[in-house]
Amino acid sequence: MTPLRVEVMDTTGVPPADRFPLWVDMAARVAAPIALTSDHAHDFQGCARMVRLGGIELTRFRYQSLAGRRTPRMIRQGDPEVYQLALTLAGASAISARRRESAIPVGHFTLIDWSRPHDLTHAGEQEGNRPAASVTAVIPRTLLPLDTDRVDRLTAGTISGLEGPGALLAQHLHHITRYPEQFPAAHGPKLAEITLSLVSMTLATWLDAEDRLPGEVRRQALLSQVRAFVERHLADPELGPQAVADAHHVSLRTLHRLFAAEEETVAGLIRRRRLDRCRRDLGDPLLRHHPVARVARRWGFTDAAHFSRAFRAAYGTGPQAYRETQAHPRP
After folding, report:
1. Any idea which GO molecular function terms this record carries (predicted)?
2. Is domain 6-164 in CATH 2.60.120.10, yes or no?
């Protein structure tokens, strides 16, 4: 499997005097040129992991305290016409733009319009001794299926990443940028589509404009919500298509239509993810003293015989035999 294309930049790999200029150059490539300053410029410690999904770029940052200013002159020299949705993971963030100043708490987003002047600050924890951290998504303005004038109202504000679509988007960005090796490169276009749908739904929710989104965007957003719900409730033996439909206030028929274009049904998704969790636990030496039936019950399988048949059908061997091969692998 060829994984997603990832670019990693760590300033510790170059001499101290070159570290901050390297970071400034990288920041310009992620979105657009910005005048950066830092009390740590003489020996700047920072790393970034950039994941490109077609026209969308996701970046996970960790860095020492800094400040940035995007000036009118910079915009005249080159306007990338992109938005950047930035999620604060650690430290204290703030933005000033459009006569609005906002502090961005940990777990919240802010929307940055790189076509407009703005000021940014991000300080590390405990007076800067611990690094700041964030994850961002840079999206061309033309890709968002929302009225630009309405989206502009959200710039430099605070958008929650702890509830609703924002929480789902935060989880999505976190997972892709932290574990990009888990995703094949061939899935890049699909991941870009999902990312755009989640960003669009998050912004539309804050604009009270969900009904203005294209049908496919709403479908992808609902599909992502369903998948996240399934992940959270795999241990519940009552989890099934009807429970999923009820939780999302749709009919069972609508739920099945939602998965019609996917590679598996909702029941197939639940079964596969439960089996994945069981296989993981059966291969964990720390759980070796747990009986197979206990592992199965932990992930919603109440019938041991049914679990054994499903496991064998999925992996070509029974659960106990699989556990033995993991404990005593062949040389």
Report:
1. DNA-binding transcription factor activity; sequence-specific DNA binding
2. yes
